[in-house]
Design goal:
The chain is 0% helix and 51% strand. By secondary structure, it is mostly beta strands. It has a single domain, classed as Jelly Rolls (Sandwich). The model has no long low-confidence stretch (mean pLDDT 89).
């Protein structure tokens, strides 16, 4: 069954964007993730040159960041992502690696935004040498709920 749009809530503005390529991150440094590929943006607020979404309308938004490590992390390493609004951390996720592999993290929050606020995401790891956050699996998205 397909619902017609008149039955669905209008949760705009909304956007989803991801990384078009892997991005190498130096160990033990917080780095803005290069979210530069806009999948959908209802109000054309995503700034791909600066890797951030600029809010167009006031409201309460559900914001989600997804970070995927595109390279191996060993047991005992750690990985973090944070979602920033205007340079303040509003959501974060941390993973201490108990089993070696390619971890992913999700960080979400509800946040009250006004026009010209901006949303971006940062990543961090402590592997000991550069590691890449992974392309299209690393995403930033948000939609207005009220």
């Amino acid at each position: 069954m397909t619902l017609q749009s008149r039955y669905l809530p209008n949760n705009t503005p909304c956007f989803i964007a991801n990384m078009s390529n892997n991005q190498s991150i130096s160990t033990a440094t917080w780095t803005v993730l290069h979210i530069d590929n806009v999948v959908y943006d209802s109000h054309n607020g995503f700034d791909t040159d600066n890797y951030k979404y600029i809010v167009q309308e006031e409201g309460i938004y559900l914001i989600t960041g997804v970070g995927w490590m595109g390279e191996y992390l060993a047991m005992g390493d750690a990985m973090y992502i944070v979602v920033n609004v205007n340079a303040s951390n509003v959501a974060q996720s941390y993973w201490y690696i108990y089993s070696a592999g390619y971890p992913s993290l999700n960080a979400s929050c509800f946040y009250s935004l006004v026009p010209d606020d901006y949303i971006l995401m940062k990543g961090y790891h402590n592997y000991g040498s550069d590691r890449a956050f992974g392309g299209t699996y690393t995403q930033l998205m948000a939609f207005r709920i009220a």
